[in-house]
């Protein structure tokens, strides 16, 4: 299996090398006018300051968690956790740095060339640094974990892989699964911080800037007279770039480790599987991910290497994604057949592979296809090319109340179709590949994550470029180019959200299955019985958890946004020269308000994700937590789809009115004002709440999986029961 | 057991007699000025017309369903279904008639006496007709079903009760459970129509009236110049009175029949229980309900018989409710001990009664207490006496977007506490009374339904009285009295919603348990295994269903409201004399728009509730439907709590601003306008969507329970599997 490790490190290094190349290429470009350079510098400084401050807190949290893991689980879980935080932290940092260098170069390219294709290339190159870093660092970490813990420490030797390790508390663990889980948890914790912190930051700044600027003072978006405008642009980088990157890195790692861990558990509960297949199941998800990463390197290069890009950014970006996804499926199929060719048919049967060697690939392919379908469904409900968002835009003519009402209707109705797609993929991948097939559907969906993240990151870079163009008072033509790129970015973001929630669902499910294997009776089929009242109550409380988490996040954004509103109002009042254009606003205070607000408000929701499964686990035991996890997962999937689509629909409904497609309406009309209300309400829903929900369910599953052996042995309810007996 | 039947018929007749007395007493009162009488007449005609039209459709639907039940299940299911529709239809009709007579008398009493206490008494008397009819007709129907089908046809003779009946398709049913289920389904179908139809009607009229009247024309609520104002007042009667009454009647019947049916299934799967206990389990929920109804008669009489009521309506109403609830618990305890005193201890043990004879009463008591607690929690989140709604009101100062955002945050956070209460009640009632204890928690929560419905109905009657006062240009003092009564009604409505959703959760759960018993392997503990992929997929799709249903309902209201807006605008434009007060508006066209809109738009969501469980059942079989039911139930509970509380909070946030509690704010300020947007958005959520969700989950469970024997035998998936084998 050493060949596998070689393939993985090649894939990781290829991705990271390509990222470094693109980073260097971006930095070597000219920043444009002095004013542009100044503004870019201000954004960069703001973003750096926030990330540094956030990472300082993270270091403390990470060390505490690592020590706790080391003491209560095992030292290698703690060390792997640290590796996870380092990899995810690095990806987020590098990607964000690249974005803050790329934004101004995008604006400058548009200024110099006036060409859509050229500008797109720079923006995508900037985004590709994040995309490739996500895949590269994630696989690099996995490589280290496999090499050091799996190989050097022998956890992957079959006899060790299935031997239980007993810690000083007498709690038993399967060693390698605890290394992998530790690594995944490290990535999760960074994602939690970057997503929630960044999410609150960006939306507080955005809402604050809009509420006073657009609505009260009547100045356009990104107007340099608005004191919150730099903070708004910083927010794009720390929220939509760094947050998104760590989020998808976490999903990527989570889906791979969930599938690998499941492999071990399947082996443990089916003694007839044979050690040969076990070893392959342990490696399969990872090698498939390496295939995906290599395919993405090729897919991204296929776009960047072309001399002349067309003026249709949507087609170009889709091209890169399809090449990556297509190659992943083809290379993945070849590799699957090679890897699994010698496995005896009985082993396949034992593990539920109905179609033999090709079975896990079918699961992965179903994951890819369903991810794409969910993305299309999101596009249908949120793009103004289709009826639902047109209806939302039309409702704006009747005022803001009906805009909100109609948007909510669209968002709620939009939950059904993706769930049917998910359901079919889940059921068929199970029929073909058993539980492992389901896990591979998740891993497959994320295998070409580097391409989707590159595309997703290009959006906020273009958005920032537009802001810099506006603030530097460049030719309106420049803004037009960046606006087109930005609006395409909105659609790609909606598709990206489909992948994020779909994969989170599969990953959470695979982790949950492993969780259940950890304490279920191995002689009976795997169970999570909702007629067990403890499990049912867990599911009920679990279902309420994402609502509470979302509510807290919305409140956090609203609170920080209100502070921003007050500050902007104060500046306008105290320095009337700002609006007249004779006085410069104080951008720094606004940046500080966003930073402090984000870091203060993220604590409670973040704690919830970790404390609730642990607390209830040690109180009520694993059956309650099993219910909690399934309840939270199902409920979070719904809310994530709802918030994502409702927010996208309001956003694009507003854009539809701005485009002049509704007769007599446009910027400045009452209908537009109503649409702006919808957009403002949707902002925290789609950009803070929705993406954070993906992380919530994965981190809960991860924490539970690591701690289940502990609270299965030690919990208050079991103790009371033992007293009664 | 004939004594039990006597007690039941006494309770039913006492309630119906008392209702008739109060109805007569209301009608004998004077209507006041000619103008008042005219307006009341117009509201009455509008309400009658809608109900008649709705009932005409219902007759067709009911006959079709009854025939289908008769053919595919058994003739007695069809007949009992018809009895259910008659009872529920009668209660809705009588209660609504009483309300449309009481409204004008309430206004007149306020006009003549200027006394809060006197006015409250008339309003409550009007409401009590609905409350007592709900309890009376429900029990009357149950009495008939027990007497005719149980006794006369011998379905309750022990040998028959547990003997399976085989219909011509070879499908087997337990006879009496199919009679009870048919009866419950009849009540459900009426509730579905009244709640959804009435809910769309009332909110379309309300939103339409507000959107043009308050927001555009700047005239106050209930201003006679607003063409939609009569439709708005009609809506209160068909939605908040008739809809609410049939809804709670359905819950009441559902919880009783669910518990009784569960008793049979428990007996069938625990052969050691003994026939004596079985018979008692069959009667127990019904006799407890009769206790509750008698207690309500006394509780309601305790208020109406007093000469001088205080000026604190909240205290007076609470008094009546506490007396009813307290008596129910005391009488219920005595009766439980008498009824179950001779049962051998082993039988109790077999069925999971940990505390012997008192066990089912503990379940019922937990239901009552948790219902009250959930009500208090709803009050905390929605009343402006507490922090959450104050925050929503404060957010209005920053505009409508932050009002919506802050309200959503409150609504989402508010989901956790009631779920914990429900969870604890569920778990403890299970520990004490087994599955039957859980079912009794639901039946207990609803046992004093007549008191809660009386209190709930008094709200819309007072609201209507205020409307009549405004339109008749009575002394502002009259309006002040009715406004106070109305605002207390808002709080009691929030508490009532807590009962509605809590009881729906328990009832759906008990029905689901019976559903599972219908096809689970009787030799193993009852299972609903979410690790069975078919069940899991069912749960995922099920969880999306309430979202889709809610989205369709919101869209229906928005669509009908938009038509109303257009009509009101048209009238204002074509007859400028209306706003000047020199021309009378055309109320009738607005009433027609609401009626037609409601009846057209209710079809799709209503179909969903019936077609989805049946369709998926015959396609994918009972395990999928099991998942569907649990997913839908959990998801609907969340949405019902969220929509109820978010709507209540926006409504009262607006009232808080109107009360002048925020310095510098009040009617006419920007903050008030923002709060009105929140209130308008919340209206369909809290009054159409939330209550309809309660019915959705019960009707789905009921339909599934009746059809499970059919689709367990005949479904496409099983057929395909048999082909493969």
Query: What is the oligomeric state here?
Result: homodimer
Task: Please count the beta strands of chain A (DSSP E, at least 2 residues each).
Answer: 2
Largest sheet of chain A: 2 strands, antiparallel
Q: How large, in whole angstroms, is the Cα Rg of chain A? A: 25 Å
What number is the mean pLDDT of chain A?
A: 91
Strand order of the largest sheet of chain A: 1-2
Helix and strand sequence of chain A: HHHHHEEHHHHHHHHHHHHHHHHHH
- Hey, roughly how much beta strand do the residues of chain A contain? under 5%
Largest protein interface?
A: A-B, 76 and 76 residues
Give an overview in words.
Two copies of one chain form a homodimer. With 725 residues, chain A is mostly helical. Helix content of chain A is 84%, strand content 1%. Chain A has helices at residues 2-27, 34-72, 75-113, 116-152, 158-161, 175-217, 229-269, 275-304, 313-339, 345-351, 359-382, 387-395, 400-413, 416-447, 449-471, 476-517, 533-574, 577-580, 587-601, 603-620, 622-658, 670-713, 716-724; strands at residues 165-166, 172-173. In chain A, strands 1-2 form a two-stranded antiparallel sheet. In chain A, α3 (75-113) runs parallel beside α6. Chain A is globular, with a radius of gyration of 25 Å. The N and C termini of chain A lie far apart (51 Å). The mean pLDDT of chain A is 91. Chains A and B meet through α6, α13, α14, α16 and α17 of A and α6, α13, α14, α16 and α17 of B.
């Amino acid at each position: 299996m050493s060949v596998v490790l070689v393939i993985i490190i090649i894939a990781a290094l290829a991705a990271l090398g390509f990222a470094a190349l693109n980073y260097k290429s971006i930095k070597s470009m000219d920043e444009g006018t002095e004013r542009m350079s100044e503004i870019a510098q201000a954004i960069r400084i703001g973003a750096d300051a926030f990330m540094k401050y956030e990472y300082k807190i993270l270091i403390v949290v990470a060390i505490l968690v690592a020590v706790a893991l080391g003491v209560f689980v095992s030292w290698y879980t703690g060390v792997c956790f640290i590796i996870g935080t380092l990899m995810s932290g690095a990806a987020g940092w590098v990607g964000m740095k690249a974005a803050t260098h790329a934004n101004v170069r995008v604006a400058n390219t548009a200024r110099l060339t006036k060409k859509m294709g050229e500008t797109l290339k720079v923006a995508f190159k900037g985004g590709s640094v994040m995309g490739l870093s996500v895949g590269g660092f994630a696989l690099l970490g996995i490589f280290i974990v496999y090499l050091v813990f799996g190989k050097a420490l022998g956890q992957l030797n079959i006899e060790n892989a299935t031997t239980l390790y007993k810690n000083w508390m007498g709690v038993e663990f399967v060693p390698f699964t605890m290394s992998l889980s530790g690594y995944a948890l490290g990535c999760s914790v960074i994602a939690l911080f970057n997503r929630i912190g960044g999410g609150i930051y960006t939306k507080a700044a955005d809402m604050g800037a809009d509420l006073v600027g657009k609505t009260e003072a009547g100045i356009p978006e990104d107007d340099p007279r608005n004191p919150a405008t730099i903070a708004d642009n910083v927010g794009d980088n720390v929220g939509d770039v760094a947050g998104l990157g760590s989020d998808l890195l976490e999903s990527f790692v989570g889906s791979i480790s969930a599938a690998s861990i499941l492999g071990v558990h399947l082996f443990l509960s089916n003694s007839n599987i044979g050690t040969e297949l076990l070893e392959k199941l342990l490696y399969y998800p990872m090698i498939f991910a390496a295939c995906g990463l290599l395919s993405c390197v090729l897919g991204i290069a296929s776009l960047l290497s072309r001399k002349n890009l067309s003026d249709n950014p949507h087609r170009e970006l889709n091209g890169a994604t399809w090449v990556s996804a297509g190659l992943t499926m083809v290379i993945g199929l070849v590799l699957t057949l090679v890897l699994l060719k010698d496995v005896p048919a009985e082993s396949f049967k034992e593990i539920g592979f109905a179609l033999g060697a090709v079975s896990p690939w079918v699961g992965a392919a179903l994951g890819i296809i369903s991810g794409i379908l969910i993305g299309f469904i999101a596009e249908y409900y949120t793009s103004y090319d289709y009826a639902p968002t047109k209806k939302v835009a039309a409702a704006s003519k009747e005022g803001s109340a009906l805009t909100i009402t109609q948007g909510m209707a669209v968002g709620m109705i939009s939950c059904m179709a993706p769930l049917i797609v998910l359901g079919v993929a889940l059921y068929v991948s199970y029929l073909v590949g058993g539980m492992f097939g389901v896990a591979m559907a998740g891993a497959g969906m994320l295998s070409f994550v580097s391409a989707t993240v590159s595309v997703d990151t290009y959006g906020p870079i273009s958005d920032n470029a537009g802001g810099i163009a506006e603030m530097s008072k460049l030719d309106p033509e420049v803004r037009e180019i960046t606006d087109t790129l930005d609006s395409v970015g909105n659609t790609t973001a909606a598709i990206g959200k489909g992948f994020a929630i779909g994969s989170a669902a599969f990953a959470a499910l695979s982790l949950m299955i492993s969780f259940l294997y950890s304490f279920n009776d191995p002689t009976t089929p795997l169970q999570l019985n909702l007629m067990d009242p403890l499990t049912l109550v867990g599911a009920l409380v679990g279902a309420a958890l994402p609502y509470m988490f979302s509510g807290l996040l919305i409140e956090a954004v609203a609170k920080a946004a209100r502070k921003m509103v007050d500050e902007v109002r104060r500046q306008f009042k105290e320095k009337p020269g700002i609006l007249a254009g004779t006085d410069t606003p104080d951008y720094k205070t606004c940046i500080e308000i966003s930073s402090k607000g984000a870091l203060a408000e993220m604590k409670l929701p973040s704690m919830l994700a970790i404390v609730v499964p642990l607390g209830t686990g040690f109180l009520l035991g694993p059956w309650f937590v099993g219910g909690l996890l399934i309840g939270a997962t199902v409920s979070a999937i719904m809310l994530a789809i709802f918030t994502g689509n409702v927010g996208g629909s309001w956003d694009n409904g507003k854009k539809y009115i701005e485009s002049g497609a509704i007769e007599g309406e446009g910027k400045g009309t009452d209908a537009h004002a109503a649409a702006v209300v919808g957009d403002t309400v949707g902002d925290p829903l789609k950009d803070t709440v929705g993406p954070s929900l993906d992380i919530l369910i994965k981190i809960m599953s991860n924490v539970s999986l690591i701690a289940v052996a502990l609270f299965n042995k030690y919990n208050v309810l079991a103790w009371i029961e033992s007293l009664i007996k």
